[in-house]
Predict the structure.
Amino acid sequence: MRYSALKVIKESLTGHKGWKPVWRSPQPKKHYDIIIVGGGGHGLATAHYLASKYGMHNIAVLEKGWIGGGNVGRNTTIIRSNYQLPENQPFYEYSMKLWENQEQELNFNTMVSQRGILNLFHSDPQRDAYVRRGNAMIMSGAGAELIDQDAVRKLYPYLDFDNARFPIKGGLLQPRGGTVRHDAVAWGYARSADSRGVDIIQNCEVTGFQITNGNCTGVNTSKGQITANKIAVCVAGSSSRVMSLAGINLPIESHVLQAFVTEGLKPFISGVITFGAGHFYVSQSDKGGLVFGGDIDGYNSYAQRGGLPVVEDVCEGGMAIMPAIGRAKLLRNWGGVVDMSMDGSPFIDRTHIKGLYFNGGWCYGGFKATPASGLCYAHLLATDEPHPKAKDFRLDRFSRGAIIDEKGVGAQPNLH
Ligand SMILES: Cc1cc2nc3c(=O)[nH]c(=O)nc-3n(C[C@H](O)[C@H](O)[C@H](O)COP(=O)(O)OP(=O)(O)OC[C@H]3O[C@@H](n4cnc5c(N)ncnc54)[C@H](O)[C@@H]3O)c2cc1C
């Protein structure tokens, strides 16, 4: 069923009886060409691109819970391509271009809103670092503007410019950055993949891999055994747990990241503001709630909930830079399990087990990567060659000394 303004008008005049379920609920087949483990944004985008771009349709997405129940539906919805390193920048810019065309591609309103993202700086060295980053962005076509204190003041007059510890001196603005309705992304990709014949099987947990003589030929699941020519794992915060079922140890730790939403307020934050020095970022949803977050909880966990010390820490970060936020009432908060890699960069790669592939290590920034990750993973699965935009996201990069340390902080997942 295609969606259009005409269809909405017709349905509203006829009692909304013509809408159909957005995807089917099929029983798993015995065999697929490709099984994707994990029905998050990345798994569903992979299925969409395998079917739409590579003409592969005998595919299953196995999801242990429900579509959108993982990080794809738990994040703070920010998209940007303000990366600096040559291994990262072209990939994230590619993703940004895919976002810009996503609604047309999926015929689904994912509410892509390029409202701009502003990274504040507070000192001369931090400004110099942003100049370098901005130049890398400009060279890759991502676009960037370094703005001074007056320009920040014009945009957001209520920030605390004279904060004793972090006085605001200016910011790096990416006007094309912004937000996207996160769960609509999962639904849009699911709908597209399903309409092209992909089986999306919810409540189907992968509990083991069938591996003989170094070949992976299928999975054990809570709905029985299913075989496939290729198995593509894409389980974000559960990466280390799931890959350990195949005996693979990953350079990834799982940590909890929390998100917060306030009551609805009149519009007053037009874009996304990040206060990296105090680790706080905020935007305002179309419903008026302030959506914000900060640091990870700082200990390894697979629980989708965080602790109170980080709630306090994040709120302090908000109060430090935007004192007025102290008057807003917090409505809800939640946690997601993020797959923190040791250098802060992701993996899209084959494993040493034939037929077994891995996508993960997205840290707390994988939402913005969803379209490019799906396309590059689909390319790898369909052609057995890395996509040129993701050619450096290899699993062996640590043994080769080729780490992609965007922030230059070393092997410290809590600092990326
Ligand atoms: C609070 C928070 C805020 C964030 N904010 C941002 C942001 O603003 N911008 C940004 O770019 N990124 C952000 N992120 C990160 C981003 O959400 C993730 O990097 C990204 O969503 C991960 O990919 P995914 O969507 O495929 O993950 P998920 O949606 O988590 O998908 C993985 C799926 O695998 C399933 N699974 C796990 N184990 C199994 C199994 N054994 N069998 C079958 N299925 C299994 C899970 O149930 C899950 O549905 C944030 C994350 C969090 C938690």
